[in-house]
Here is the input.
Amino acid sequence: MLEDYSQAFPATFGAVTKDGSLANPFRIFLQSLWNRSGQGTGIPLQVANALAATGSSQATALQLNVDINEVLTVPPGSGVLLLPLQVGQWQSVFNGDGGNLLVYPASGYNIDALAANVGYTLGALKTQIFSAYSPTQLRTLQLG
Here is the structure.
């Protein structure tokens, strides 16, 4: 029997809806924890070390589909494409090659003060975290 917890958790908490199901922001949070813990293995998901950037535009860039990404082959002018992140979600990108890597946001998104759909230039041997600050605004944090 499903108990009514809607009174125990005020609407501002946002974990469950009135019908007892998980609220979408809370579900996304739990999914990100599951992914970042390696889906039960304790090892975060990451792309194979042979990942190579492609394309020179948002439309032809290599789509990144996990949270932690290592790009070790970066042809000149090539790039990668972030997922359409929800507020609170993030993706990190490590550029393990000697040249610059263009990191494109999902269609309609901005990275920092750049215009919508413009690629962010990630320098060689740098790691950048891209986090969703609002529905279409990404903020960055460089780690090295």
Summary: The mean pLDDT is 82. The longest helix spans residues 24-36. The chain has one helix and nine strands.
